[in-house]
What we know:
CATH class of the largest domain: Mainly Alpha
Bound molecules: iron/sulfur cluster
Structural class: mainly alpha
Helix content: 40-55%
Oligomer: single chain
Strand content: under 5%
CATH topology of the largest domain: Endonuclease III, domain 1
Amino acid sequence: MTDCKKKDGEANTASPSLSKVCNNNLIAVYESLTTAFGPQNWWPAEGPEEMIIGALLTQNTTWNNVEKALTNLRLKNLLSFSAILDTPLTEIESLIKPSGYFRQKSRRLKNLAEAIVNTGGLQTLETIATAKLREWLLDLHGVGPETADSILLYAFERPIFVIDTYTLRISKRHKWLPENAGYIEAQKMFTQELPAEVSLFNDFHALFVQIGKNFCRPNQQKCNDCPLKPFLRP
Ligand code: SF4
């Protein structure tokens, strides 16, 4: 993989359509995905608090299960950090049971709610620079890089590219990344090759999820039907 850094002094502010100069041609990949699936407008949540709660609940489960848990919380008006903080742990456990690991996730939700409320709420967190806010999120119990970056991108609208198993799988199968690449290397590659635009990063991640779910499965590649077939390398 050759490098695709900006030239010295050159701002990476070109619109996606003007940026088809990078090694892995990721803008062309993005355009093909958009043509195939249309804009995704993620994250599926009503507001940042619901988004952050959903991001914690989605660990190690499907989104269908998360939706059931979110519906239970919504029916009890518990989709806010102050409400979660004021609700007994056992009640949270019972409401989020459909999302799996409900005891662990309930404690994590409580911890997260307490940390956010004690810090002054989302309005205070919004004033913190991205790198510091990322560190703060990663210090929270049960928040790893994917969850932290999802929160940064979708709740705080920071231009951070989220890496998930779909993104890694697709990138390695297309040889955009070496087989042994991990989260940091993948994020670096996407960040270097793409203009730092929240809407682009938002949609790109969601579109990779579509490919990963429908075509690029762990043990099955439906390349002949996949919109990314033209981007396969020999
Ligand atoms: S299914 Fe094939 S063409 Fe589609 S993303 Fe996976 S490897 Fe690429």
